[in-house]
Design a protein that fits this description.
Layout (H helix, E strand, L loop, with lengths): L3 E10 L2 E11 L4 E5 L6 H8 L7 E6 L2 E2 L8 E3 L11 H11 L4 H9 L20 H15 L3 E5 L7 H18 L2 E6 L2 H7 L2 E6 L4 E7 L14 H13 L1
Parallel strand pairs: 3-8, 3-9, 6-7, 7-8
Antiparallel strand pairs: 1-2, 1-4, 4-5, 9-10
């Protein structure tokens, strides 16, 4: 059974259809990318999957349960880390638990238990402005995990990072995702990033946006350090470019 299943989702704004009959699946432990041009409806689809918006048609199911229009079942991280500047890192990370009604010290303790595996040890009492961009993203991802540890929706989480930091974050995220057994649906405009990270890639193209292709990346993970220099990588990239 698919862990997350989106079936025939259509969204309309002001009589304009944004996405139409979109269906996709995310299985346990997978990282699946949603790739397409800006304005193609990817974020709209994430709003539907997260329950922040109800579609005109279609359903979202998690482990067989219909969660359409019901927020709180999957975690959702936007492009910016949105860490609160006046809270320490541990309090930023613990925020989802506080919202759910946990006592402050209990929430902090649960959050701190994951700082080492997320590479954040030593940052508990620091503030966001004291961290590098990569470390802020780690904190934001841990906060996302604290909201829901099954499925994460990530909307271009690494787009603001420089090339070296982004490459490091790619390796780190694949490693930590494997350790914590989290499934990820990932929005990106970066073809290279999609190929390097994904088990599968859905192309969302056109107006209204539709899933026009599903591409399976056969290369096992973790990918070889020089995978982006191989003929296999270039073949995937050429195929995607021809379809976009």
């Amino acid at each position: 059974m698919a862990e997350l299943k989106v079936t025939d989702v259509t969204v309309v704004y002001d009589d304009k259809t944004i996405i139409e009959d979109v269906s996709l699946e995310l299985h346990e432990g997978e990282l699946v990318s949603l790739l397409g041009a800006s304005g193609g409806g990817k974020t709209t689809l994430f709003n539907v999957i997260s329950g922040l918006q109800e579609p005109e048609n279609g359903t979202v199911a998690l482990n067989g349960e219909d969660i359409t229009g019901h927020p709180g079942h999957v975690s959702y991280m936007l492009q910016k880390d949105l860490l609160l500047p006046y809270r320490t890192i541990e309090d930023n990370v613990a925020l989802p638990l506080l919202i759910k009604g946990e006592k402050k010290e209990t929430a902090r303790e649960k959050a701190r238990a994951h700082f080492t595996e997320f590479g954040l040890e030593g940052t508990e009492k620091k503030y966001p402005h004291q961290l590098s961009g990569g470390m802020r993203q780690r904190a934001a991802l841990l906060r996302t995990y604290m909201f829901s540890n099954e499925i994460a929706l990530l909307d271009e989480p690494f787009s603001s990072l420089d090339t070296m930091t982004k490459s490091e974050m790619h390796r780190w995220y694949l490693d930590v995702m494997d350790k914590i057994k989290m499934s990820t649906l990932f929005i990106t405009h970066d073809i290279d990033e999609a190929i390097l990270l994904s088990d599968r890639i859905y192309l969302l193209t056109g107006a209204p946006g539709k899933i026009t292709e599903e591409i399976v990346i056969e290369e096992p993970k973790p990918r070889k350090p020089d995978f982006n220099l191989t003929e296999e990588f270039m073949n995937y990239k050429k195929k995607i470019l021809s379809l976009l």
